[in-house]
Amino acid sequence: QVQLIESGGGLARSGGSLRLSCVASGRTCSRYDTAWFRQAPGKEREFVSSIHWNVEITYYADSVKGRFTISRDDPKNKVDLQMNSLEPDDTAVYYCAIKLRTSDYDTWGQGTQVTVSA
Predict the structure, then answer these.
(1) Cα separation, 12 vs 58, whole angstroms
(2) CA dist 28 to 11, 25, 66, 112, Å?
(3) CA-CA 20 to 30 A from 69: which of 43, 53, 55, 85?
(4) pLDDT digits over 60-74, tens only?
């Protein structure tokens, strides 16, 4: 069974940076389309960014475009999300997900909390 493990969350000030990582136990994230989602308190989960497993095709939500960068680190079998110029509205639990068995994101991590203070 594949388990996704996120790390790197924490507390940052507005304008600061954090780097999230997603590692798949037993598998490599680099073989699957991988995405980051987030869910803020009282809000629905929303898409943040994704990266194709084979080619460097990336997508970003408009709200993070130009501030966040998703990347694969194949030697370390992980996918990172570099978050710069953080804003209080970025406060949320961030989840990593992969397309393991279907054409949709069907395998999820437990999430990592990101809190941005003004």
Answers:
(1) 25
(2) 28, 7, 27, 19
(3) 43
(4) 999 999 999 999 888
Are 29 and 20 contacting, i.e. CB atoms less than 8 angstroms apart? no
Cα–Cα dist 32/52, whole Å: 7
pLDDT at 27: 62
Give the separation between CA 2 and CA 107, rounded to whole angstroms.
8
Q: Give the residue from 105, 39, 23, 38 showing the smallest Cα distance to 68.
A: 38
Q: Name the token pair of 46.
A: 């929303």
Measuring CA to CA, how many Å separate 93 from each of 9, 31, 51, 57, 73? 9, 24, 19, 24, 22
Cα–chain center distance at 95 = 6
